[in-house]
């Protein structure tokens, strides 16, 4: 069983590195400009102020950090107060070892305990690994929005994958 804990300031360099790799080398996140450690510190502070978790996953407390995951508001309007949007990132050299699966389960369990109603992920339609991970975890793929955004000069399709948390 991997070890999962809350992220601290000491994890900022790792999270900055991993998110910047996703920004520069994938369509996982539709941003083109790398973020700074200061930006990630502010992001972590904001998450904690809002009462949302940011989790770190690693093989054991003594092993290198493998990835991180979080959730936050799906949309800002009052009607969406029980709906959350999540994200997770595993370092490239740690992918394919079950960390994504374990972290997604932990996010689902925590969100259920926090009484959220539905967890939604907005995935780039070309992200086959993430789509497979979410299907395996019981998420349903909603309709795909063609050309919902752009990155590196190309329009990209967006698929919302969702899972109801409360029976
Ligand atoms: C997508 C991501 C989170 C998956 O995490 P991971 O630790 O590599 O995945 P796991 O080893 O836990 O695999 C769990 C399941 O995901 C699917 N999966 C993972 N990698 C896959 C790949 N390259 N191709 C197809 N399916 C894949 C499989 O269904 C797998 O189950 P299996 O091992 O029983 O076949 C990870 O690759 C990642 O961080 N990618 C970059 C950032 C990103 O895309 N984040 C998601 C944004 S929504």
Which compounds are bound in this model? coenzyme A
Class by alpha and beta content: alpha+beta
Q: What is the CATH first-level class name?
A: Alpha Beta
| Helix and strand run | EHHEEEHEHEE
Can you walk through the features of this model?
- The chain is an alpha+beta fold.
- The protein has one domain (3-164): Aminopeptidase (3-Layer(aba) Sandwich).
- It has four helices and seven strands.
- It has helices spanning 12-25, 37-50, 99-113, 128-136; strands at 3-6, 54-58, 65-73, 83-90, 118-124, 140-151, 154-164.
- Strands 1-2-3-4-5-7-6 form a seven-stranded mixed beta sheet, sandwiched between helices.
- A hairpin with a 6-residue loop joins β2 (54-58) and β3 (65-73).
- The mean pLDDT is 97.
- Bound molecules: coenzyme A (COA).
- The site of coenzyme A (COA) has 23 residues, from β4, α3, β5 and α4.
Write a concise keyword list for the protein shown above.
4 helices; seven-stranded mixed sheet; GNAT_dom; 167 residues; Aminopeptidase; acyltransferase activity, transferring groups other than amino-acyl groups; binds coenzyme A; alpha+beta
Topology of this protein?
Layout lengths: L2 E4 L5 H14 L11 H14 L3 E5 L6 E9 L9 E8 L8 H15 L4 E7 L3 H9 L3 E12 L2 E11 L3
Parallel strand pairs: 4-5
Antiparallel strand pairs: 1-2, 2-3, 3-4, 5-7, 6-7
This protein binds coenzyme A.
EC number: 2.3.1.-
Organism: Entomobacter blattae
Pfam families: Acetyltransf_1
């Amino acid at each position: 069983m991997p070890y999962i804990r809350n992220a601290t300031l000491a994890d900022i360099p790792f999270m900055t590195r991993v998110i910047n790799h996703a920004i520069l080398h994938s369509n996982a996140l539709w941003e083109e400009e790398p973020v700074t450690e200061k930006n990630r510190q502010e992001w972590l502070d904001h998450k904690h102020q809002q009462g949302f978790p940011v989790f770190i996953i690693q093989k054991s407390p003594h092993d290198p950090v493998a990835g991180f995951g979080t959730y936050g508001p799906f949309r800002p309007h009052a009607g969406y107060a029980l709906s959350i949007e999540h994200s997770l990132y595993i370092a490239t050299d740690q992918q394919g070892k079950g960390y994504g699966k374990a972290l997604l389960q932990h996010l689902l369990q925590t969100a259920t305990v926090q009484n959220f109603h539905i967890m939604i992920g907005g995935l780039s339609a070309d992200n086959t690994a993430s789509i497979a991970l979410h299907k395996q975890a019981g998420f349903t793929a909603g309709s795909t929005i063609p050309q919902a955004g752009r990155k590196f000069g190309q329009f990209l399709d967006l698929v919302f994958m969702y899972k109801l948390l409360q029976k």
